[in-house]
Amino acid sequence: MTGRKKIHLGATDILRARNDVWGDETADTGMRIVLAGNPARYLRIPHSTARAMAFLLKQPLGETVGRMRSLFPNVNLDDMLRLELVDLIPLGGVDPSPKLVAELWTRNLLARTLVQRRGWSALATWMSAPDAPYSIARPLIFDEIEAAARVSFAFPATSRQCTVVALAVCAALSARRIPARIAVIAENEQAFMHSFVVVGSHIVDPSDTTLETKKLVPLWINS
Amino acid sequence: MSRELTGLIDWTEEIPIGPINRDLDAIVRWSDRHFPVREVDLYSARRGGSLIVSPDPWRVAARLGDPQPDYDSLADMLFFPLLPSSPNRSLLAGVSRWRIPAEEPYGRSQDHITLEQGVNALDLAIRTNIREAWAGRQRACVLVTGGLDSAVVAALVTQETGQVPILLAARGGLASPLEIELQDQLARWLGTGLHVLSELPVFTIDPLLNRNAGSDFPTGGVFTHIWDYVAAKASDLGADIIFTGEGGNEVFSPGLALAYDQLRSGSLRAAVATIGRTRDSDRSGALTRLAQSPAQAILPHMLRGSSKHPTVTAWRGELSLVQNGASQRRNAQLRKLRSSGYSYTEIDSVLNLERSELFHAHSKLIPLPFFSPLLHPSVRRVVSSVAPKWRNPVKIGFQDKYLLRVVGRHVLPPEITEVRKIGISNQTAVALRGADIAAELSKVQVGAKWAGLDLSETFMYPHRLPVNTSLDWTRLLAVAAWATQGMDR
Question: Has this prediction a pTM greater than 0.80?
């Protein structure tokens, strides 16, 4: 996403760890060798950079450039970005790609048909999928999918019904080999429910708000 | 908005209609001579050849005979924020309202500034508001909810006052687990402890009655006793001002109105994205249908005082008629404001802000002032001067209330500023836990009967209803309390 061109980093820009960078976990001093995501190549990085990456990996929503500079004054953040070791959310932002918007639009149509035919049971397979561990740092692809889904709702024939949206988003993530599953929540005494996609500790839901209520589970679990 | 009428309540004058015209300018000129207080709205009615004028609508109505409710205005108040559809109507039949604004309520759009300039100006505006409210005070308290608005306010109050404020969190079921975690995170970040109110007082309607004594419009609601309790606790802890993040939603999440502004400024891509973001669910799925039906089951018993309980189907017909009328009046008002040069976002945010007094109002028993630096017109002015495509863009990694989030990034960690907005559960249900609702409502029976509200069994169980409907319940409760107090006068 960032390419190789020089980017001016502002203090309020946010850096996020990428989850497609591989390295030797045990090396704690000296240079480390990592495999960067794209273009796939190995790099030798100094220990201070490795520490900065380790720090970012523990930040679910990333860290501002200003604070990273004060925490890791010796690390060249521009280089980390240029070598695609981290992702950037710049102040001006990046639009979701039209290709992804089109994909979400198509998946929304298919999911809508499925829900019309089968009701909530269309979700059942995804609801019972196992809860797989995933990186603490939120990968930017989740936000890309959310933004693209939001835009796709402006186009005809889409549905904003949470069941349809969850199915579409879940299919888009699964196509990228991300272990997504669907959760349904409800509140006692309230006839309000909501479904959304969960990956590890992350929620992928194009709606603007998160509701916190009880998760629905198969009744046999506690019987 | 309601104004404080204490000291003016006995003031009513009957003016011969000849010397003055019935337009606002004439009233203003006349009131300058006779009645220099510009902070209150005046109410008037024609009787014979004269005009009865008073800051208290009930006194005007009493001169005409038995005060009767204006059902259309009541409907407007139920379906839309407090006074959007017609600022010249009161809730009393035959009584007009003369609105004399003390200052320009809407910031006129300036030439658009860039995103960076906007963020800096916003930061400055909020800090200035805090400094002005802080002048002469000793100890600040911030009411933290776990949301972005109060967190940004708390962090900026810390910087501007030079002391970490008392952080007060009302839990007792009002905060969700994620909000509780965020409250704790904020306290850790600011390096202070959190004062938690884990048990809330049982609902009583007396503070609400107190709130509406001498008020020209219904204010307060089901949370008034909780606000009183919070203010009393803050006072016990030594605070002399309470800062809140109230108004953040209305100012920084403009909704569909933003798409109109984006279209007008030529940002087609941004407008399409905003439309996509704010489009309603099409309600085609099984789960939503489950939620819809009970949501529409409470109001039938309340408008126009029907003693018989109609079927839900029959009532829906009546409801849609009333709602259509209210929406026509509101649209007329929107067109009028639009033609005077205000942007859609400004109109929308101001109309929604009028509602805030209904839910966030404490009684007059508490001397401690509540202050939200986000509610000040200067903040709205800055937001409306930022180019529309930057006000709340749909971009990768951007959440709702984008401008406020960027301001917050200077003073808070991303774990707080970048968290998605947290929706509320049915807080009315929490506020009414353990309350003897029937006994409390009997205190406003007179006003309810006057307004045509049927305090039937349906009315007694608002906690079984979804959140939107329970907010309607709160508004009706305020009407009943206001009418009870008005009839006493």
Answer: yes
